# Entry
Amino acid sequence: MLIFVLLKIPFIMIKNKILPVIALLLSFQFISFAQVNLSKDFKVSVSDPFAVIDGASKEYFSDGKGFAIAVKTNGEKAFIQRFNVSTMKEVNRNEYEDFPPYNKVQKIMQVGDRLYYIFSSFDKKAKVENIYSREINMADASFQKAKLLFSTSSEVTVSSYVDNIPGTFGAGGIRFEVLTSFDNSKIMIRYRTKPQVKKDSKNFDVLGFYVFDAGFTKVWGGEAKMPYTEKEMNNLAYSVTKDGKAFMLAYLNETKAFELFAINKDLSVKKSKMDIDGKLFFQEFKLRESADGNISCTGYYANGLDVKVNWTGNAALSFNTNGILHFKMDQEGKILEKYDYEFPIALINQFESTRAQDKNEKREGEGKAGINDVKMTNLIQNADGSTIIVGEQQYIRNEFVGTKQQIVYHYGHVIMTKIDKNGKLLWMNKLPKNQAGVVGKGGMGIRFIKSADAEYVLFLDNIKNANLSKDEAPAKHMDGRGGYLTAFKVNDGTGAFEKHYLFDIEDINGQQAYQFKTPRIFDSSDKTFLLEVYLKGKKDGIVKMELLK
# Structure
């Protein structure tokens, strides 16, 4: 909260006019903020406005032929738009309501040059949940006929979330998770049924696994009972291979051990013990088939959990991230390679306040220094066998905003890591970022885009950070208070990065964006990014960012 107390305001004379000093100071501040050097590496243009489509879900794709597709869902209605990237003109718009009743979109996915809309529908009379795929014709933005994939009479519950921060789950989480193999030749839909027994010590989870080829022809599927109770095990990660095999990573709570489950076509579960230290804390794992047919597993680890207490006495648990554990195993769970990429103290201290650095130095002596609450946002497996891991600090705190105590959502620094196919660490860096807001994710977080020779991390930033020094902590960007769309361009070979300011969202070539969401940024080609924004007056617009260098 800002409190202005005007008692005795000094005045000065400028060109025979008397002005209060406070007005002059405010004008200096305006002038300094106005002198922003926008990147010359990008050409920014804005389309003519077009009629808005309201929707809780908005996703964007490129057809690779000079057109972009927007798929928007509003309740039980779906809209498909097609744009010419060169002219930024909307060339097709179709609205659909011909869905089965009680339908909910679960995933919109691009497999090669085909685009699919995956949705569930509850048959109230038969008490059956049906899962459908519906292909989108990208040539004219039209829906093809829905295809029934499978049905279940089991009651399905939420089994994963799009974000690990409470309040940002959108419509309550994902009930049917859709995964693909390394080469996109196999697709797996998995889900969790509602527990039949309320006690964790008595209930055995029943999970659904359905595997399809790239055209959504069923290979096998059904529901499998887990070999341990909920109390005995935690379900960590899932994967499907190009051979159509389903795998699951589990953690056994009592013995503090990891096991790899292979779910067979007859829905039996084969368990394999793994030689991985179960005493470490893991917030999450990503399980992926690697290019050689083995299974790679990646996760941020912590030596323990910290308790963060603010000046009001409110406490919150914090995941004290110490590094990355990355290992490869065969399909029997035998560990073939294992690597621990610990965060060095120089990386931990970078872009932190002097006070935080002093604390970290002390904790380093105790083996506890880390970066708090790092969540994996992207895991990219390249064709050459190398892996890029992107993480972002994401956490919530109960804080005072003015005189009111509120939950504050924080999206902080970005940690990027690249390792080669042999497990060698090629580079690791921290990208400085500091965002906070009180309405969930809002316009915060990052959009990661990979191009041929570089990676791009895009987000809204406070212009005060334009000339941030190497060791200076970034100023906070408050969600909903304007901001500059910023891009870190990261060299794929070295990890070195450049910072580019693309535009002020309150003045994009004379247009003001009244809504901004990072997921609405997407790449339409290797060096062209698009962003849909709301321009007011029930109008949307497309912002095109073309990389010139």
Remarks:
- Confidence is low (pLDDT under 50) at residues 1-34, 162-171.
